[in-house]
Amino acid sequence: MANNGRGRQGGRSTRADTPFSRAKASGKPVGRAAKKQAERSGTAKPSSSTKPASSSSKAGSKPSSSSSRAGSKPGSKPQGRRSQAGPKGLGGDRVEGRQSVRELLLSGQRRVREIVLSAGMDQADILDDIIDLADEMKVPIREVSRSKFDAQALTTSAQGIYADAQPLPEHELDDLLRPADGSVPFLLALDGVTDPGNLGALVRTAECAGVTGIVLPRHRAVHVTPTVTKSAAGAIEFVPMALVGGLPTAMSDMRAAGVWVVGLDEGGDHRLDSLDLAQPTCLVLGAEGQGLSRLVRQRCDAIAAIPLLGKLNSLNVSAAGAVACFEVARQRTGA
Fold first, then answer.
1. 193-245 tens-digit pLDDT
2. Which of the chain's ends, N or C, has fewer CB atoms near its CB within 10 Å?
3. pTM, rounded to two decimals
4. Domains defined for the chain, CATH in brackets
């Protein structure tokens, strides 16, 4: 049956006329992005009103500290790839990577302000789906040159696409202790994890293993940066997360609510697979290299270890988290 260039077929976009194809043909942005560009170009004024340089800037004169910064805004940074500044809240407003952007649109839980594409990319099914979803949701799409995209991207592997969206919503710890669907709480608490790649991998693992909530310290820990969104591959849209002022206090609240708190450490007193993890449980993972802090260790109901058979005595925190999360999933599903 003829498709007439519209709709979906086989789980992918079959639209022949999309914002991406129109933008690629014209070389200009479309929709609201085009309107904004037109407004900017219409209101731009020539720079003839610029005052000439003062006599103090002539040759032989010593420039003042303020004149040496002429043309730069206060607090501006050197040109080049922008740094991933730590978010004040949970973060997540910049989403980079194809799978991450696709899941952002499919979840429909946050408003997406704009999608930016790099010019010259090869055709891919997932890009067709993203463009089609953005068109249906009336999300502006803008295509820029590859060099400009690389300068604007905040990760080194953005796969030619990123989206700017509303930040992730912060959840209260009480909400995580009582899942809305009535399921048994399965929480993951991170004690000072600072590597965004590890956090992204842990969020992805948590979503796949059925974790009902993640608890992060508000201070001295990584939150959801663009690298986290890329590593998590869309999982940040589906796992509720809470920020707490102090993890030891939050662990005390968990225990008071009937949640069993289990810390992971290579020197643990129990094998992880020997514990009953089908009950309401919170797994606590320590920081890279340092492990569990003293106060966090004291607030745990049990310290468990993952049996290791090789010569090394520890796993990367994201690898240990994956093993532990799926041990909980195994016990709960009876696998």
1. 999 999 999 999 999 999 999 999 999 899 999 999 999 999 999 999 999 99
2. N
3. 0.74
4. 86-167 (3.30.1330.30), 173-333 (3.40.1280.10)
